[in-house]
């Protein structure tokens, strides 16, 4: 074969290879559907204890999180639970030897909870969006926090390792999950998002929060 023709053929193959370079993957936006929430018809004894336990169970079992404190707190021994003097914050203590941990739920003046179905084309999950609510899981403190008026006073030497929702600087979710931003217009910076494949667990959390915090509202529809 003529050398000139071979060169032309090779150049054509190079052009074809360049034109068929892989295209960037486009992530499909999920279909997000608001769902109604209802308060429990009967009061649940020890709603605060059950709320803290259900939150820990959620963080241990739900998909997409990148947290270490739930696993560590699972090995602590449960201790006292208390409310702030104004009834807007809950504190559940845990202890392991000389180390302390806790789960805290803090609510603002008009907290609101919404539930959403999130369908990505092949799988359905659920998201609880809590407005005016902050949840913290802490382990490794050298002493238990104490109430100082309406606020918690932590150790100044070793306050512990904090993992808190509603933070604008860090996320509790794996980057690949796209949560919470995949919720689109239903999420705002500063919201707490609980993401789970178990709808009933999220509904239970919402119902327990509504019982424990009388000023909290559940969205029946949007």
Description:
- The chain is of the alpha+beta class and 222 residues long.
- It has one domain.
- Helices cover 23% and strands 34% of the residues.
- The chain contains 4 helices and 10 strands; from the N terminus they run H-E-H-H-E-E-E-E-E-E-E-E-H-E.
- The strands form 2 sheets. Strands 1, 2, 3, 4, 5, 8, 9 and 10 form an 8-stranded mixed β-sheet that branches.
- Helix 2 runs antiparallel to helix 4.
- It is globular and about 50 Å long.
- The N terminus is likely disordered.
In short:
The chain is α+β, with helices and mostly antiparallel strands.
Number of helices: 4
**Low-confidence parts, pLDDT < 50 over ≥5 residues?**
1-26
Mean pLDDT reading: 88
How many individual β-strands? Answer: 10
Order of helices and strands: HEHHEEEEEEEEHE
DSSP strand (E) fraction? 25-35%
Count of domain modules: 1
Distance between the termini: 73 Å
Radius of gyration: 24 Å
Helix- and strand-based class? alpha+beta
Shape: globular
| Share in helix | 10-25%
Sheet with the most strands? Answer: 8 strands, mixed
Write the layout of secondary structure elements.
Elements: H1 3-19, E1 31-35, H2 47-61, H3 69-73, E2 77-83, E3 89-96, E4 99-119, E5 124-141, E6 146-148, E7 151-153, E8 161-164, E9 192-196, H4 199-212, E10 217-218
Helix pairs in contact: 2-4
